[in-house]
Design goal:
213 residues; alpha/beta; two-stranded antiparallel ribbon; 29% helix
């Protein structure tokens, strides 16, 4: 990893510290080389605090949003986490730095294969990747202490609430196809509490419980 990336990463981390208070999340962002999750022609922008295009018309999320969503899960190190939408695998890697086990699903085979290669190259052994099925999420691995959804849904999918453990947290963008609110939902004794973490913009979540393809 060249010195330019190191300097750029240090500057990004400095910016993130202004708003992200969980030092474990900051440390994970320092360790994971975002440039490896990008196409060669945009790697020079890896540590700009902005979303960037990847294959299949998808994006790698803005680092601040990745950090914010991860911080909202309040991970301690032993949790079992589900990610809906592997994409480039960058958010997957950040989760793997902080959780005990990460299950991630992706509906685009090309992205899944690329993410698998990158995550394997980085040596992660606490991640399992699956092609997305008709049922949203990965019920076979439930319950999960945390769930992150990296695409916008029109409403909170009940199927994902069902896959949460008692006390589990779901972080999901909810709104229109073009603009959403980032919500943190906590499940307690079959009751849910909802907190709005702010505005965001994600690609649409394509699933039976979300948007049609």
């Amino acid at each position: 990893m060249n010195q330019d990336f190191n300097a750029d990463r240090a500057e990004l981390v400095r910016q993130l510290r202004l708003e992200i208070k969980d030092e474990k999340v900051i440390s994970a962002m320092e360790r994971v080389p975002r440039e490896l999750f990008l196409p060669p022609d945009t790697q020079h922008l890896a540590y700009e605090n902005m979303p960037l295009p990847i294959a299949e018309g998808q994006t790698i999320s803005q680092p601040f949003i990745v950090a914010l969503m991860t911080e909202a899960l309040d991970l301690r190190g032993e949790e079992r986490v589900l990610e809906v939408g592997t994409g480039s695998g960058y958010q997957t890697a950040i989760l793997a730095e902080l959780a005990g086990w990460v299950v991630s699903v992706e509906r685009r085979q090309r992205l899944l294969e690329s993410a698998s290669r990158t995550l394997g190259r980085l040596g992660y052994t606490n991640i399992e990747l699956h092609p997305a099925q008709e049922t949203l999420g990965w019920p076979e691995g439930a319950p999960y202490d945390g769930i992150i959804v990296t695409a916008g849904a029109p409403k909170t999918p009940p199927g994902l609430i069902d896959q949460l453990a008692e006390g589990g947290k779901l972080v999901i963008p909810v709104g229109s196809r073009y603009e959403q609110k980032l919500l943190r939902i906590i499940k307690r004794k079959d009751q849910i509490s909802t907190e709005n973490l702010g505005g965001c913009r994600f690609v649409p979540l394509i699933a039976r419980e979300a948007w049609a393809d």
